[in-house]
Amino acid sequence: MEKLHTFYGVLVLTIDGYIRHQLLPNFRYDEARGSKKVLIKAVSYTIPRNHIDYKDDTGFTADGEFKDDILYHAGMILYKEK
Question: Which of 12, 36, 59, 63 lies at a CB distance of 3.0 to 4.6 Å from 78, suitable for a disulfide?
Fold first, then answer.
């Protein structure tokens, strides 16, 4: 069985905390921006190795790469919540 990536089930956010992705352990995620609690309730995400594939509830897809415990996604840099 493949080891789960260290980002499963955690909150990742931009350095200013404005954009937040909650990567839920059931392979769903929520995205929030600013004071809004949940902007997008997404269908799914997968993390094969150091890559992440997102699919939101409208069918839109996006992806990103993990490097040194940092997520690079759609021009954003997201960090694990401490």
Answer: 12
Homologous superfamily (CATH) of 11-80 is Uncharacterised protein family Atu4866 (2.40.128.290)
Q: Which two tokens stand for residue 3?
A: 């080891």
Helices (H), the chain: none
Q: What is the pLDDT of residues 7-33, one digit of tens each?
A: 777 778 899 999 888 888 788 888 888
What's the whole-model pTM score? 0.77
Query: Closest Cα to residue 69, out of 77, 59, 80, 60?
Result: 80
CA distances from 80 to 13, 21, 57, 59 (A): 7, 10, 24, 26
Q: What confidence category does residue 43 fall into, taking pLDDT thresholds of 50, 70 and 90? A: low
